[in-house]
Amino acid sequence: MSKNIFRTKSINQFLSETKQDGGMNRVLGTFGLTMLGIGCIVGTGIFVLTGIAAANFSGPALVISFVIAALACGCAALCYSEFAAMIPVAGSAYTYGYVALGEFWAWVIGWDLILEYTLALSAVSIGWSGYFGNILTNLGLALPKEFITAPEEGGLINLPAMAIIWIITLINMKGITQSSLVNDIIVVIKLAVVGLFIALGVSHVDPANWTPFMPYGWSGVFTGASVIFFAYIGFDAVSTAAEEVKNPQKDLPRGIILSLVICTVLYIAVSAILTGMVPYLQFKTTAAPVAYALQLVGYHWGAAAVSVGAICGLTSVLLVMCLGQSRILFVMSRDGLLPRFFGHINQKTKTPVRSSLLVAVVSSILAGLVPIGVVAEMVNIGTLGAFIIVSASVIILRKKAPDRVRPFRCPLVPLIPILAILFCGVLVVMLPTITQIRFVVWLAIGLVIYFGYGYKHSIITKAQKGTLTAPVSAAAEEPAQAPALHEGAHSTIEH
Predict the structure, then answer these.
(1) Does residue 133 surpass a pLDDT of 90?
(2) In 11-157, which ranges are continuous DSSP H helix?
(3) How far apart are CA 488 and CA 477, in angstroms?
(4) Where exactly are the transmembrane stretches of this chain (predicted)?
């Protein structure tokens, strides 16, 4: 078994599987993908975590923390772009790991991504609930604390957090066209709000607030980077929509890189203005730092607008995260590593309805019962782990298949992937020890499931035993049908 767990699947096999059940609707272009990326990136990080990181870790050097996190994500984004253009399949890092490293590492990445997206959905929905509750309170319609707070924080259940996940799930189940349209509208609103904050706040910057610039030292800056790394999670979600893209070889790399660049510029501008408007220690008292800063300088209407923008921002994050998680579960189930019941496309909506419902059930329960601090840190370590493995996969596949056609090539290999691994590795080390322990426990649970179920039910295992209903060998496409993805003499199942 030790050799078989590292068996790989060919790109052609993955591509042919995208046509099962008629495939998904390919309607997204560069603009739609970039908007999905921005929709997923700009949210909790800019509206919530900026204040937490400034007050507790980075101080005014929050700008440097954002730059460090951006460098880590930028190197990883280039690695993602190479794979996304070469393997336009919905599984994202899971699929890339299957091709480059084999089934075992694909499972590790996939299990890692399940952790990332499920907990990200929960964390963002809890943040959404907080802003929603504040708006209702300002309107004189305050909800009972018992129904907007997790049990660990003195409540019974966070109902708004659960409700928004189900609303988003229903939108995603309707189809990618509807989801993309809703996301585009929301992104325009929240970008306008971020622009409003920059325009209003820049004239109220007091350079004295930037002193001391690095109150917690470099250790605080890197810890701050590991915390606000959550703010950048989202560009990788672009690759999960690969099976719904019109021209994935060109559009996917553009969407990934453009969304990350735009959001990085916004983050640096907002963090510089935010810490210049308000002494960093004052952010210890608020969970809405952007609105709080505007209130302090007298822009109460601006603070209200930011609250609305935050609600919109968090909603679009939920929309894209929910979409990404359902696609990853769908592909893993289609491969047999999870129950194949969830690897089904609804013929009417062309969406993975069953996996979407599973995501909604699990993430809404977590959102209703678990506090935000715990889930946010677990999201970060899950994402960093995935970035490390994808970056390593680029180096390995360049060695294993140097002649394989790559519509987009990550520059300066192996330097860029190595930098991504080093940056992400440092950020993992800087996370709290309890988070690292929880992550190891999660991976251990995943290994039990893989060896107890996934390995035995994998479509590769069934093909080798001759028990697969639809033979895997049928997945091999002629190179002429997919010239941009020609694999030469690679077989359907590689060992």
Answers:
(1) no
(2) 11-17, 30-41, 44, 50-53, 62-86, 93-100, 103-138
(3) 11
(4) 27-55, 61-81, 93-114, 155-173, 185-204, 216-235, 256-281, 301-324, 357-375, 381-398, 410-431, 437-455
pTM: 0.80
Distance CA 203, CA 380 (A): 34
Give the position of tokens 């969406």: 351
Residue 373 lies in a domain: yes
Q: Is residue 17 in some structural domain?
A: no
Question: Would you say 57 and 220 are in contact if contact means Cβ atoms under 8 Å apart?
Answer: yes
Q: Is the pLDDT of residue 488 over 60?
A: no
260, 74 Cβ separation under 8 angstroms: yes
258, 78 Cβ separation under 8 angstroms: no
Look at the chain and report how many structural domains it folds into: 1
Would you say 87 and 243 are in contact if contact means Cβ atoms under 8 Å apart? no
Structure confidence by residue, pLDDT tens digits, 444-470: 999 999 999 999 999 888 888 876 554
Q: Does some domain include residue 311?
A: yes
Q: Which residues contact 194 (CB under 8 A, 6 or more apart)?
A: 42, 46, 266, 270, 309
Cβ neighbours of residue 124 closer than 8 Å, sequence gap 6 or more: 43, 44, 314, 317, 318, 321
Cβ-contact 71, 423 below 8 angstroms: yes
User: 250 and 30 in contact (C-beta within 8 Å)?
Assistant: yes
Report helix, strand or coil for 8.
strand
Region of 182 please: left (phi>0), alpha (psi -120 to 50) or beta.
alpha
The per-residue pLDDT of the chain, averaged, comes to: 85
Residue 401: phi and psi, rounded to 5, are -140, 70
| CATH (domain of 86) | 1.20.1740.10
Chain center to CA of 420: 16
| 58 contacts 68 by C-beta, under 8 angstroms | no
Question: In a 10 Å sphere around its CB, with 0-12 CB exposed, 13-18 middle and 19+ buried, how is residue 295 labelled?
Answer: middle
Lowest mean pLDDT among 18-27, 200-209, 358-367: 18-27
- Does the bond joining 414 to the residue before it have cis omega, within 30 degrees of 0? yes
Distance from the Cα of residue 330 to its chain's centroid:
16
Has residue 208 been placed in a domain? yes
> Of the candidates 66, 114, 64, 71, which has an alpha carbon nearest to the alpha carbon of residue 92?
114
